[in-house]
Amino acid sequence: MPDERLPPLPPLHALRSFHAAARFGRFREAAAALGLTESAISHQVRKLEDYLSVRLFERRGNAVALTLVGQTYFDEIDPAFSRIRAATEALSGPCCRVSLTLPSSLATFWLIPRLGQLESELPEINLQMSPSNRVVDLKRDQIDLAIRHGRGSWPGLAAEHLFDEQSFPICRPGFLAEGTSPQEALASARLIISAAHPPEWTEWAQARGLAPPRLDNALTLEGTEQILEAAAGGLGLAIGRRPMVDRWVEEGRVEAPFGTADQSGYAYFLVYRQDGELTVPARRLARWLMRICKGEAAAAALFAEKPVAPA
């Protein structure tokens, strides 16, 4: 019969006392944090030292300092305590934390206007939103979900399509004379270029079979908000990207003189690690995001909550 005993672990009460004392640097503060007496902390630390047969602390009056081996041991176990704490909070807290990273412009123009709906429909979700224009390492930064812009392929990540990006010229209403053709506009109007995607006007022209525009007098700007403000202010003709530009068009701050049907060839995807298991709160947020983008059936099929096995 195989040996079914679990591998030995150090005394957990002693381990917790050591961890607290190492963090605070004093047995008194560690005792207060854990609701114990100072002598109890000292006893538990001594118990762990006896178990490991090493000296973990040097006593310096009312304070303690980690020995070299004690510091090494603390550095190894501290991440485990953090993970246990985070896992417990996710399961037992009244608000379930879910971390989400996404492009800054998408957060500003698309998700934040929908936060009221999210809070109304999923009040238990504690969303930790991290807008960023860099590609975040989900494992290293301990991020549950991400929304990424691209073509849907990222190593080690599962990607679910949310919606296609559409890109089209926008300008202040009346900026172009009525009946101006796209080719005439490219030749006569000042163009606004996104520093994040300099070839956008050339790509748009080529997709429509038009001659590429001259960019000698173009105005180059950094962020989506700057570009929209410049276009709305009559400084030139810009490329607007859905869904960021939707509200500006609806409110009449800008217009799309040649329509809004052009596809950019890129899309937004909901991504998550293939080597990890999404928590129940993360699945709920993923299902909500998919539902508002793709419909209830697709969301339910992809992010169904897994039944809990009976004890």
Short description:
The protein is α/β, with parallel strands linked by helices.
List the helices and strands and how they pair.
Layout lengths: L11 H13 L2 H8 L3 H15 L4 E4 L2 E4 L1 H25 L3 E7 L1 H8 L3 H7 L3 E7 L13 E6 L6 E14 L11 H7 L3 E3 L5 H8 L11 E3 L2 H9 L5 E5 L3 H5 L12 E11 L6 H15 L1 H7 L9
Parallel strand pairs: 3-4, 3-5, 7-8
Antiparallel strand pairs: 1-2, 5-10, 6-9, 6-10
What attributes characterize this protein structure?
single chain, elongated, Arc Repressor Mutant, subunit A, alpha/beta, 311 residues, D-Maltodextrin-Binding Protein, domain 2, 6-stranded mixed β-sheet, disordered C terminus, two-stranded antiparallel ribbon
Strand order of the largest sheet: 4-3-5-10-6-9
- The average pLDDT is 86
Q: Total helix count?
A: 12
What is the end-to-end distance? Answer: 24 Å
Order of helices and strands: HHHEEHEHHEEEHEHEHEHEHH
Q: Give the strand content.
A: 15-25%
Can you characterise this structure?
With 311 residues, the protein is of the alpha/beta class. The protein has two domains: 12-92, Orthogonal Bundle (Arc Repressor Mutant, subunit A), CATH 1.10.10.10; 96-304, D-Maltodextrin-Binding Protein, domain 2 (3-Layer(aba) Sandwich). The chain has twelve helices and ten strands. Helix 1 packs across helix 2, helix 1 packs across helix 3 (38-52) and helix 11 packs antiparallel against helix 12 (296-302). The radius of gyration is 28 Å and the shape is elongated. The model is unreliable at 306-311 (pLDDT under 50).
